[in-house]
Amino acid sequence: MASDGKTVPQQKQETQPSKEDVMDRTPQFTSPGYKPSNKLQGKVALVTGGDSGIGRAVCHCFALEGATVAFTYVKGHEDKEAQDTLEIMRKAKTLDAEEPMAIAADLGYDQNCKRVVHQVVKAYGRIDILVNNAAEQYKSSTIEEISEERLERVFRTNIFSYFFMVRHALKCMREGSAIINTTSVNAYKGNDELLDYTATKGAIVAFTRGLALQLVGKGIRVNGVAPGPIWTPLIPASMGEEETANFGAEVPMKRAGQPSEVAPSFVFLACNHCSSYITGQVLHPNGGTIVNA
Q1: What is d(CA 74, CA 94) in angstroms, rounded to the nearest whole number?
Q2: Are 285 and 257 in contact (CB under 8 A)?
Q3: What is 228-254 written as a DSSP string?
Q4: Which overall architecture, per CATH, does domain 44-283 show?
C-alpha cells in the first residue's frame, strides 16, 4: 500500500487495450516463491489475451511448468507487451518445450478464432489446454449510457470469443484436455458501474457449467477462475484516478491482488494430477470476498 494510504498511486490511461509498461507499479507476473514441478510437461496451451495482466502471468506459469504456450494479443495496441511476454516465456520455458508463439487477432469474430486455432495446431499439432481470458470493460453510471455498439463490442470480446475458440479448438483436443474460462467476482456480487462487463462474466459462469456437462463424456474438463480486484492494465484504462488509487481496498485483505496470485489457480485446473475430479467449477482468488454459487 502506498504511503498516503492508497493501494496504488493515482493514474489513468485513455485507451483500451491499455499499456502495462507505462503503469505506475507494474503488475507482478511472477512470484519468487513459486516452485514449478513439471505439472504441464509436454502439454500445448493456448491463452487468449496473454500479453499482459493475468494472461501474462498464466503464460509464464505454464511455461515454467513445461508447457508449450501460444497466446493472442491485439495488434497495434499490445505489440510491445506481446514481445515482452514472448521474451519472458523464452527465459522460463523448459528444454523439451517448443518456442512460444504470439498471434495477433480480434477474437470477437469466428473466422479470426478459427485462424488462431489453425496456426497453433499447424505449429504444435494439437491443443491440450485452452484458456479463454481476453476481456474488456468500460464504466457507466446508467444503462442508458451503454450504446448498442459498445454492448456488442463487450459481448464479442468477453463471451462470443469463448464460444468461437472452444468450437474450433475442440477439433484438436483429446481426452484429458482442459478448458479454463476467466470470469470475475462481479458475476457473483454484481457491479452497477460495469453492467455490460458483469453480464458477460455471468454468462461465462453459465457457459462453463453447461460446457462441462456437454464435454464430460469426452474426458475434457471445463472450469473457471473468478478473480477479485487484480492489478492489471484494465484498471487504469477503465477507472478514474481516485478509484484506481483505492482499487482493492474494499475486500477483506484491503488490497488489490497481483496476477501472480491468480495464475496458480489456472495451473491447478490445467493439471490432471491436481484436478482430475474437478469440472464445471470456479475458483475464487478474490482477497477474501465470500462467494456463494
Answers
A1: 27
A2: yes
A3: -SB--THHHHHS-HHHHHTTTTTSTT-
A4: 3-Layer(aba) Sandwich (3.40)
Helix (H, G, I), strand (E, B) or coil at 140: coil
What the block records as the C-alpha cell of 176 is 484429458
* Predicted confidence (pLDDT) per residue in 97-114, tens digit: 999 999 999 999 999 999
pLDDT for 1 equals: 47
**Cβ burial 51-77 (10 Å sphere, 16+ → b, else e):** bbbbbbbbbbbbbbbbbbbbbbbbeeb
Q: Where are the domains of the chain?
A: 44-283
Q: What are phi and psi of 177, to 5 degrees?
A: -75, 165
Q: Active-site positions?
A: 197
- Contact between 41 and 65 under an 8 Å Cβ cutoff? The reply is yes
Residue with cell string 481476453? 134
Q: What number of other Cβ atoms are within 10 A of residue 184's Cβ?
A: 27
Percent residues over pLDDT 70 in the chain: 91
In this predicted structure, the answer to whether residue 2 has a pLDDT above a threshold of 90 is: no
| pLDDT beyond 70 at 69 | yes
Q: What's the CA gap between 6 and 232, in Å, rounded?
A: 16
